[in-house]
C-alpha cells in the first residue's frame, strides 16, 4: 500500500522503496494503489469539489494577495493540523470579491468564494468573542491582585475558571475555523493579467510567427522512424527495464542531448544568469508552495513512500526553494538562474499518436530559467525570458509560433503565460516546446521570499529596527530554455535528408566535436 499523502483532496502517486540490505543500492518501484496529484500539465487547473467545510483536505492555491497554505494528511476522515501555514489576506478577498469571483470564472476554477467569505465572517465573530473573554479574564486577574473578602475572592476564582474554560473552547474553535478558511481560500487561483485572452485554449492568441515550414520534396519520416534507422534510441529495451514511456538514447543522440544542454547553458549565461544543478528530490511541501496542485484524477508527481519527498517535474521547484523564508536586500535583485535537471512526470492520461516516442516521456533532461525580481520589473523580465527562448529556437532554424495563453489554460500560479509551439513535420503538427510564466507574487507569498527596499535617508544617524523599510514579496518568473526530448524531435524531423541522414544545426556542431551529419550506420 502506498503512503497516502493528501494534497487538496487527492494524493501523490508513490514509489516504493524496496526493503534491501544497507550495503545495497536502493530501488524505486511504482506501486499500484495510489490516489493522484496532477501538478505539471499545461492545463493545471484547480479542482475543488463540494465538501463538508470542516472535513477539507489541503488546498494550496492562493490569490495574489493570498499567502500560502499547508500540506495535511487525512486520518479517519479528520483533518490533521497543517504542516505549514499561509498568511492569507482574507480582507483583500472580501473587499475585492467581485473581481475575485470573475477571475475564478474566467480561469475555470471551482473555488468556493462564498464559502471563503462565510468562513471569514465566522472567524471574525469568534475572534471578537475570544478577545472579549480574554479582556474579561485579564480584568478578573487584576481584581484579584487587591485586598478582597474571602467570599469575593472565591467568586472571582470561579468566574476566572469559567472564563478560562470558555476561552479554551473558543480558541480551539478559532484554530479550526482559521485552518479551514486557509485551506478553502487556497482554491482561489492567481490573478490574471488584463491582456490575457479570456476563454479556453482555443482562445489563445498568436504573438509571433517565426520562420516557415520546410518544403521537403520527399516523404518525411517521424522521429521514431529516423531514430530507429539511425540507431539513436531504444524504447523496447527501456520498456523492459523501466516500463513504457522510458527510453535509451544512443550514439549521436547522446551527443545531441549534451550539445543542446551545454549550448543552451552557455547562451543563457551570456544574459547574466547564474548556472545551477539542482536536487531532484524535494520535500512535498515545496512542491505545494510552488503552486503545483491536483486537477482531476490524473497524477503527474512521483513521491517516495515513507518520506515527504517527491521527484521533481521541473527545476522551477528546487530553484524556487533556494531563497525560501528569506528576506533579500533590494540590491541583490534581480536574481537570475539557469538550472539543469532531470525531470520526472507520470504523464497519466496521455495516450495516442500525438504522444508517441520522445514527445511525452516519464524522465527527461531540461534547462530552466528562473527569475526573482522587484514587482515593478516582472513584466519586463517576462518579455526578456520569452525573447531568450525565441532567439534560441530561431538560432536552431525552427519554425515556431508564440502564443499568449488564454485564461482557462493558465496553471494556478501563472498571472500570464506565453507558450512556444514548434512545427514538427513528422508528427504533422505544432508541438509545445517551451513556456514562460510570470507568477507575480503567487509563489513568493507561499515560499516566504521577501525583499527589503533600500532604506530612505534616515532623519537621524541612529539606526534602529523602526527605520527599516517594510519588506515586500518578490515576483517570480520561470521559462523553459530547452526541454531536450522535444528539441530532439524538432531537430531530427526538421533536419532530415532524403537519404535518411540528419544535418546538425550550426550552433550545436562545436558542442558535438565538429560533427555535421548523422548518417545511417553501415551494416
UniProtKB/TrEMBL annotation:
Pfam families attached here? Answer: Seryl_tRNA_N (PF02403), tRNA-synt_2b (PF00587)
Q: Which InterPro entries match?
A: aa-tRNA-synt_IIb, aa-tRNA-synth_II, aa-tRNA-synth_II/BPL/LPL, Ser-tRNA-ligase_type_1, Ser-tRNA-synth_1_N, SerRS_1_N_sf, SerRS_core, tRNA-bd_arm
Q: Where is this site: Important for serine binding?
A: 480
Q: Which GO terms describe its biological process?
A: seryl-tRNA aminoacylation
User: Coiled coil: which residue ranges?
Assistant: 116-180
Report residues binding L-serine: 314, 345, 368, 478
Q: How is this protein named in the record?
A: serine--tRNA ligase
Amino acid at each position: 500500500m502506498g503512503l497516502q499523502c493528501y494534497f487538496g483532496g487527492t494524493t501523490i502517486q508513490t514509489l516504493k522503496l524496496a526493503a534491501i540490505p544497507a550495503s545495497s543500492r536502493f530501488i524505486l518501484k511504482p506501486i499500484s494503489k495510489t490516489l493522484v496529484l496532477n501538478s505539471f500539465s499545461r492545463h493545471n487547473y484547480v479542482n475543488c469539489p463540494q465538501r463538508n467545510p470542516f472535513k477539507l483536505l489541503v488546498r494550496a492555491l492562493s490569490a495574489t494577495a493570498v499567502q500560502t497554505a499547508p500540506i495535511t494528511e487525512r486520518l479517519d476522515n479528520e483533518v490533521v493540523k497543517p504542516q505549514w501555514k499561509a498568511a492569507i489576506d482574507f480582507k483583500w478577498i472580501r473587499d475585492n470579491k467581485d473581481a475575485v469571483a470573475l477571475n475564478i470564472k474566467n480561469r475555470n476554477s471551482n473555488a468556493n468564494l462564498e464559502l471563503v467569505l462565510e468562513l471569514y465572517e465566522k472567524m471574525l465573530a469568534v475572534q471578537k468573542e475570544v478577545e472579549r473573554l480574554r479582556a474579561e479574564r485579564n480584568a478578573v486577574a487584576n481584581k484579584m491582585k487587591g485586598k478582597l473578602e474571602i467570599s469575593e475572592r472565591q467568586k472571582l476564582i470561579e468566574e476566572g475558571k469559567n472564563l478560562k474554560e470558555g476561552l479554551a473552547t473558543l480558541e480551539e474553535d478559532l484554530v479550526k475555523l482559521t485552518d479551514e478558511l486557509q485551506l478553502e481560500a487556497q482554491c482561489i487561483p492567481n490573478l490574471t493579467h488584463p491582456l490575457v485572452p479570456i476563454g479556453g485554449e482555443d482562445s489563445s492568441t498568436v504573438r509571433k510567427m517565426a520562420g516557415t515550414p520546410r518544403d521537403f520534396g520527399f516523404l518525411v519520416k517521424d522521429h521514431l522512424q529516423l531514430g530507429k534507422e539511425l540507431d539513436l534510441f531504444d524504447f523496447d529495451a527501456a520498456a523492459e527495464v523501466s516500463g513504457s514511456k522510458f527510453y535509451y538514447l544512443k550514439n549521436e543522440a547522446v551527443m545531441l542531448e549534451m550539445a543542446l544542454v551545454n549550448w543552451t547553458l552557455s547562451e543563457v549565461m551570456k544574459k547574466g544568469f547564474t548556472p545551477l544543478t539542482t536536487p531532484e528530490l524535494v520535500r512535498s511541501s515545496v512542491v505545494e508552495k510552488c503552486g503545483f496542485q491536483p486537477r482531476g484524477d490524473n497524477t503527474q508527481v512521483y513521491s517516495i513512500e515513507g518520506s515527504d519527498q517527491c521527484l521533481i517535474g521541473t527545476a522551477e521547484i528546487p530553484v524556487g526553494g533556494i531563497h525560501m523564508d528569506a528576506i533579500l536586500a533590494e540590491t541583490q535583485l534581480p536574481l537570475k538562474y539557469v538550472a539543469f535537471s532531470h525531470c520526472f512526470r507520470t504523464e497519466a492520461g496521455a495516450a495516442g499518436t500525438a504522444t508517441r516516442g520522445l514527445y511525452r516521456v516519464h524522465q527527461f533532461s531540461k534547462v530552466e530559467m528562473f527569475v526573482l525580481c522587484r514587482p515593478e520589473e516582472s513584466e519586463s523580465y517576462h518579455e526578456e525570458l520569452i525573447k531568450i527562448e525565441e532567439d534560441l529556437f530561431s538560432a536552431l532554424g525552427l519554425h515556431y509560433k508564440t502564443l499568449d495563453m488564454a485564461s482557462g489554460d493558465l496553471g494556478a500560479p501563472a498571472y500570464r503565460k506565453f507558450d512556444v509551439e514548434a512545427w514538427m513535420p513528422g508528427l504533422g503538427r505544432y508541438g509545445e516546446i517551451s513556456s514562460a510564466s510570470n507568477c507575480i507574487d503567487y509563489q513568493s507569498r507561499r515560499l516566504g521570499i521577501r525583499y527589503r527596499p533600500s532604506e530612505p535617508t534616515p532623519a537621524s544617524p541612529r539606526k534602529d529596527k523602526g527605520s527599516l523599510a517594510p519588506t515586500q514579496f518578490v515576483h517570480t518568473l520561470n521559462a523553459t530554455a530547452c526541454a531536450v526530448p522535444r528539441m530532439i524531435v524538432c531537430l531530427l524531423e526538421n533536419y532530415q535528408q532524403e537519404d535518411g541522414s540528419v544535418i546538425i544545426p550550426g550552433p550545436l556542431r562545436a558542442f558535438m566535436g565538429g560533427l555535421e551529419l548523422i548518417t545511417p550506420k553501415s551494416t
